[in-house]
Amino acid sequence: MSFFPKISFHREVEEYLTKVFRNNELITSLGAKETESKYQSLLSHLSHPPAFTTVRVNTHLSSVKHVKKMLLEEIQKQFKGICVPVLEHPELQDILLIPAIGPRQDLKKHESEVIVGAQCGYAVLRGAHVYVPGIISTSKFMKAGDLVSVYSDIEGKCKRGAKEFEGVKVFLGNGISELSRSEIFSSHGPVNGMGIRMIEPVYLSPSFDNVLPSHLFLQNLPSVVVSHVLNPQPGERILDMCAAPGGKTTHLATLMHDQGEVIAMDKIANKVKRIKQNAELLQLNCIKAFCYDGTKALSVEKREDEQEGPPFLPESFDRILLDAPCSGMGQRPTMSYSSTLKELMSYQPLQRKLLFCVTCKGTSYRRRRHEGSWTGT
């Protein structure tokens, strides 16, 4: 039985997904009962965190063995006697895996409650503490130092500053308040910093806030696999078309031993800034980031200027990585998916535009050197 309720959707989205999943081919292969069982299991798993937290080692600065040792020491400090292993991935040599312990069902709930937003709640389930911007409501007389139980408002119906909430809420664990209610909801403007320090989370995962920031990059496993499949080589010129926040970009540069050039693009300026910050933090110098629309990244017309940024001419790159914008429905944990069917279907035309730009409009990669070496995700 699931600890959390299965993920919920808009009715039209659920009807669409149900129809797609219960297709004739799958039913013929597995039978109607097994097909339905797998579908319900999928919905349940989406609302729970992954079994492992995945971190990528910045092998540009240090070895996996050395970082593993430092990480073990950090986790021992956080968990205070609870033994949690750090495992090396059997196939990907720059990946460390930390098992998530939970769900812990024997935690005592406290009278004083804190309600957080859904996104904050998902972060808590992955090991984060609660920061003030994520807090929506607290009990009336909560003071700094109080033991509190933290809940997630997964439907987004709790009003900011409410003194109690009777709507749908999911228990995330217990913590200690760092601030009083009056300090959190101060009229002097938003308060930053930690609001609740989690001491008994439902899922025990390490917090990576300021933990070895130059040596580790918190990154989901599929995102790591992509860069290994692309297999960039030192000295090559690589394009990452939709690069923010820079996880794959910095991974590509690391695999290339910071030799060559990685061009990263995103059409939102703040996200491009984040790419540059991550490159600087990981001490990677071969990355150049540009604020530009990926659908317009390539041009067949020769440019007269010597500008190094987009748009680019045909055969400008050895390899291209395209991680096109998507619905994000597979992110875990997610207990409530708020997009409408119209929003869900809007990604397909954009993905086709980006793919057309790579494969047809000017053939941007150097076909003769690396036939078929672009990768799409």
Give the C-level CATH assignment of the largest domain.
Alpha Beta
Radius of gyration: 23 Å
What's the end-to-end separation, in Å? 33 Å
Question: What's the number of structural domains?
Answer: 3
CATH architecture of the largest domain: 3-Layer(aba) Sandwich
User: How many helices in DSSP terms?
Assistant: 11
CATH names the topology of the largest domain as: Rossmann fold
Low-pLDDT runs: 367-377
Q: Note the run of SSEs as H and E.
A: HHHEHEEEHEEEEHEEHEHEHEEHHE
The rough form would be described as: globular
Q: For the report, how would you describe the main beta sheet?
A: 6 strands, mixed
Explain what this protein looks like in three dimensions:
The chain has a 6-stranded mixed sheet. The chain is α/β, with parallel strands linked by helices. The longest helix is centred in the first third of the chain and has 16 residues. The protein folds into 3 domains: 40 residues, no CATH class; 89 residues, Archaeosine Trna-guanine Transglycosylase, Chain: A, domain 4 (Roll); 150 residues, Rossmann fold (3-Layer(aba) Sandwich), CATH 3.40.50. The chain is globular, with a radius of gyration of 23 Å. The protein is built from 11 helices and 15 strands. Helix 7 crosses helix 8. The C terminus is likely disordered. Belongs to the class I-like SAM-binding methyltransferase superfamily. RsmB/NOP family. This is NOP2/Sun RNA methyltransferase 6.
